[in-house]
Amino acid sequence: MAFGLAIPSATGCGSGSDTPPSTASGPSRCVVEHVKTAVPVPTGMVFTHVAQIDAEWVPGQQPRTLLEQPFSPSITWQQGRADEREVLAAVAANPNPLPTGIRDDRRSVAEFLQGVDQPQGVVVGYAAVTEVVANLTVDCADAAQVRGELRTWLAPDLGAVSCARPPEPSAPEAADKAFAGFCVADE
Amino acid sequence: MRSHSAILCVITSLGILGFVDPTVAAADDVTPMVIACDNRGETWYDTHNVVRPNKLTHYERYYNGTGSTMSASFSALHQATLTASVTVTSGGSVSASAVIAELKADTGLSLSASGSSTSSSSVGVSASLPNGKYLVAYRGNVQVTGSFTKYYCNTSGGLNTSATGTGKSFGVNETGAQRCDLAAPSGSMAALAKTTAC
Fold first, then answer.
1. How far apart (Å, rounded) are the C-alpha atoms in residues B131 and B6?
2. More confident position, A46 or A96
3. What are the CA-CA distances from residue B115 to residues A34, B70, B97, B165 (Å)?
4. Does pLDDT of A3 surpass 80?
5. Distance between CA atoms of B123 and B57, rounded to whole angstroms?
6. What is the pLDDT of residues B114-126, one digit of tens each?
7. pLDDT tens digits along B66-83
8. What's the mean pLDDT in B172-194?
9. DSSP letter (8 states) at residue B41
10. ipTM, 2 decimals?
11. CA distance A75 to chain B (A)
């Protein structure tokens, strides 16, 4: 019979009264016990990858990259600080976690564009996310708290638009912006 | 092995299932109430408050504005990781595998062992998407979470609660593609993907 217990995201070591508060210590002083994140607030849409194919393109070829901008979640500390990787791991372990991984859509866009059957003109494939910020509170093992702001992404949105005509009214914001921002130069 | 079910029936009739305290006495009784058990020396687990929501681990929304239908591999990148674990909130050691087994019995699902987690690799789904339409590529699992109580029938035939805590695990993953303009079965993973991403 197997025995096993879950352990918290980090094991706290006991602290004496002479332990300096986390707010006045270096990045590794707060042993992360628990992280709370507030409801994320959207700040806008950002492209993570944009590529194009044209009439000369044949399936199997790699699209031409127009923009490559992977999104890396990050934390801006406002009161004290803790190890960022440890905090992101704790955020990821929450019951309803916010994304903490790097968003790199190069492969997704390339694979999606392989589905275009003989493009008549330029087709732009895009990947975008909604950037969000969320206040976070870190409970440290010594009962101190540090605070910061998590910048991460939600609502991944991929697509492809023909540069021959504007997207339909039902198209998402990302399609409109991809058409406006990446079709003009080639048409 | 399941002789404790009879004992639990007794406990249920006393209205204290899920909170067994042999030291509790009736208000007009000076004798501590001891719940008897006949499976002396045995230990077993009971789970309660078990919930089993669908959870997405990967999803992407796609839009086709190319002017023609696309037949493509729709990738879904990792969004969240589900883990299986057992956490003790009071009492002594527990068997994580026994807790997960009890959650399996409660839900009838095939659940992953404690310590395992869902994959963070991206997944691809082959599908066809007409011009002007949206589609969500997704992967998800049923996440099962419940509280447990570990019981022990001592050598005197008295029932003890030796540990309490929570257990969580996840079922077999489900990968698919759901068009945003088409209906998805109520309560399905596809319906969750549509609600979340469309």
1. 62
2. A46
3. 19, 40, 10, 16
4. no
5. 10
6. 999 999 899 999 9
7. 999 999 999 998 888 999
8. 97
9. T
10. 0.78
11. 18
In order of A86, A92, A97, B17, B68, the CA distances from A89 in angstroms are 5, 5, 10, 37, 42
Q: Which two tokens stand for residue B4?
A: 């404790």
Residues linked to residue B70 through DSSP beta bridges, in sequence order: B129
CA distances from B78 to A155, B137, B138 (A): 12, 11, 10
Q: Report the C-alpha gap between A120 and A142 in whole angstroms.
A: 64
Q: How many C-beta atoms lie closer than 10 Å to residue B32's C-beta? A: 12
CB–CB contact B83 A161 (8 Å): no
Residue B182 to residue A149: CA distance in whole angstroms: 38
Question: Is B59–A156 a contact, with Cβ atoms under 8 angstroms apart?
Answer: yes
Q: What is the mean pLDDT of chain B?
A: 86
Top pLDDT among A109 and B28 is at A109
pLDDT in the model for residue B182:
97
> Cα(B196)–Cα(B180) distance, rounded to whole angstroms?
11
Strands A145-162 and B54-65: parallel
Closest C-alpha to B139, from B64, B51, B52, B60: B60
> Distance (Å) from the C-alpha of residue B156 to the closest C-alpha of chain A?
25
Tell me whether A38 touches chain B (CB under 8 Å): no
A97 has a chain B CB within 8 A of its CB: yes
Helix ranges (DSSP H) in B14-152: 96-107
- Given a cut of 70, is residue B15 above it in pLDDT? no
Percent of chain A, pLDDT > 90? 73
B142: phi then psi, degrees, rounded to nearest 5: -80, 125
- Look at residue A85 in the predicted model and tell me its pLDDT: 92
DSSP per position, A29-80: S--EEEEEEPPPEEEEEEEEEEEEE-TT--TTSPPEEEEE--B--EEEEEES
